[in-house]
Design a protein that fits this description.
single chain; about 300 residues; alpha/beta; Nucleotidyltransferase, domain 5; three-stranded antiparallel β-sheet; 8 helices; 13 strands; globular
Amino acid sequence: MLQENDKKQDEIPEELPQHVLIEDAGKGFKKWTNPQNGFRVLRVHYSTDPKKDTKEWREDARKGITYSQYLREYELVWRSFEGRPVFMDDWNHNFHTAKEFLNFAPHLPVLRGWDFGLTPAVVYAQLMPGMRLFLLREICEQEMGLERFLDEVTLKSKEWFPNVKRFVDIVDPAGFYRKDTDERSCVMLMNQSPWFLKPIPGLQNPQARRSAVVKFLQRNVGGKPAMVVSPACKVIIGGMDGGYHYAYNRSGQLRENPEKNAYSHPADALQYICTRVFDVDLSSIDTNVQIKQPSYHMGR
């Protein structure tokens, strides 16, 4: 289990306070002032000791504890998770996370990936020149029905992306099916007034979905990441850092499917975007695509 989590040292994101001036005070030392009480804080990392700042020492320190325990005890990362992050081999926090909020391009369509249920999520993205995917915003809710969520997405879309003339909606394929307790499917509801959306289904196959994201994570364009995540997408980033993960079962084996939690819903929404982004003609008004799966009939 430990070797599965053998990430390079520069790929482990530092957990430091936001919106304060962080000062480097030498190898392994960082200091800042607590804005609430004025106290000076000195953070001391084990790398201050040259004897401990080696791969061999870290491997020895990990023995007998889980990776999340190691992160808390040695790397001072308190927000750590049990299990194996889904994109652990391809995600690099420092490389794929933008240092500043990303701006959108008003002349380009905005892609919206949707995951349904009572914990719905929408991820906003744009395909930029060089086939770089910018993840711009996210909406993640708890215990919210689809109609209320549609209203919220409509409001936020106008607020965050003024002057954008076109949104392309890529949704969970399950949204095309009606439930026994409701004659309307999620997509039927999206088609109706006042929303009049024409969503297309993302791919359902878990391997295809994961592979579509990995292709973006593994590619770089002129030394820049092909997938860039804005700091506004906190849940997406937390999911990539480990919140979206394969949990261990009682026998110590990794489960086949990722854990369903607050991080999995926007992660699924992102995957739907990635599976369809190259199938949609983003230069035209028509968003219809050929649906290869015979079970999907676009709400008919």
